[in-house]
Write a structure and sequence with these properties.
This protein is mainly β. It is about 10% helix and about 40% strand. Strand 2 and strand 3 form a beta hairpin. It starts with 9 loop residues before the first strand and ends in a 17-residue tail after the last helix.
Length: about 90
């Protein structure tokens, strides 16, 4: 059933957040990469409102943006905002 539904939309990284926008909804949150097989990525978006959505991202959807997407996912996957008293990557000040 899920395979027949249209899950097309736009994934964006902006202002320190991932946002998924489709015709029916828009969700922001943390994106975690689960599987990377070069041409396809399996990711999970844990929204700020609660809940999670799984996505299969395909290189063919936008081949020119694919390398940048993969780099962004690797650099942000599973990260949460750092507390104010912590330096980048969680190292103490």
């Amino acid at each position: 059933w899920a395979a027949r539904r249209d899950h097309s939309g736009t994934l964006r990284w902006s202002a320190g957040k991932w946002t998924w926008t489709s015709q029916s909804c828009a969700r922001s949150g943390t994106l975690t990469m689960l599987v990377d097989v070069q041409q396809v990525l399996v990711v999970i978006l844990r929204s700020d409102e609660g809940g999670a959505r799984w996505f299969w991202l395909h290189r063919g959807a936008d081949p020119s943006a694919w390398p940048a997407l993969r780099r962004a996912l690797v650099s942000t996957s599973g990260r949460r905002p750092l507390p104010n008293d912590r330096a980048q990557d969680g190292a103490p000040l």
